[in-house]
Amino acid sequence: MPIRAWRTTSTRTRVRRRRTSSGSRSSCCTSVTRTPPSHGSGTSSTTAPLSRVNCDASLLLDSTRRSLSEKETDRSFGQRNFRYLDTIKEAVERECPGVVSCADILVLSGREGIAALGGPYIPLKTGRRDGRKSRAEILEQYLPDHNESMTVVLDRFSKMGIDTPGLVALLGSHSVGRTHCVKLVHRLYPEVDPVINPDHIGHMLHKCPDPIPDPKAVQYVRNDRGTPMILDNNYYRNILDNKGLLLVDHQLATDKRTRGYVKKMAKSQEYFFKEFSRALRILTENNPLTGDEGEIRLQCSVVNKH
After folding, report:
1. Which residues form the Plant heme peroxidase family profile domain (predicted)?
2. For the segment 142-152, what is each residue's pLDDT rounded down to a tens digit?
């Protein structure tokens, strides 16, 4: 299916059936809405798996005896609450069985999470289909880590069609949520990274008191102590003030290729949202499965039985 044939979702969110003239429920139409979640947890962990866009929903597949899934790799540490996607899929299947892919549900749920956190509402295309394989073995080839150089990060995103301002905007998603201590203790132990704002060090050490944290323990630091559950441009002001938690946050604010965009987004939330929306649309349309490719999974965590 060519890109131009994709459906663009409307701003309403209920799944409904459209009856034919004979009264049978032979065709389904879906539209997406900003319905508030019924299981509000008070933390951004609810949308953790949604923040990493995945165009064939391979992220959602469980491991098998033969292969390790993407969501169980070290690179995916901290992502959870996949059960909410299962709940959405079950509801959609009851209304429109075999029509809406897990890939579309993943992307659109992420879009709704962005809007619920105060971010822009972004019209996105639908029509993706689900992959049949989780590709953990090539994850590191495409997804940059938090301690990669800015050159690597820019290169990886460039290959997906994301330019420099788009990358800077997408990293603004660090405005919400939290960073687990296992991802940042290397900046605290054995010596504190001297570039970290001294006013921020005490809080980080308090939240991450162990140089080798238990990966099963829920030890973390809020990405933004000021507006931790609002997607806004405060992230850029924080990293310009050397309060970024991850090495990539610090590099974003200091690298000459990205610093100018960081400053511009720190001054203008409108510009941040504009670039964020543009980059997210590109990311969600990156090499999707359409037409007869892949499948429409009945359950998002397992491929269909053929």
Report:
1. 54-304
2. 888 888 999 99
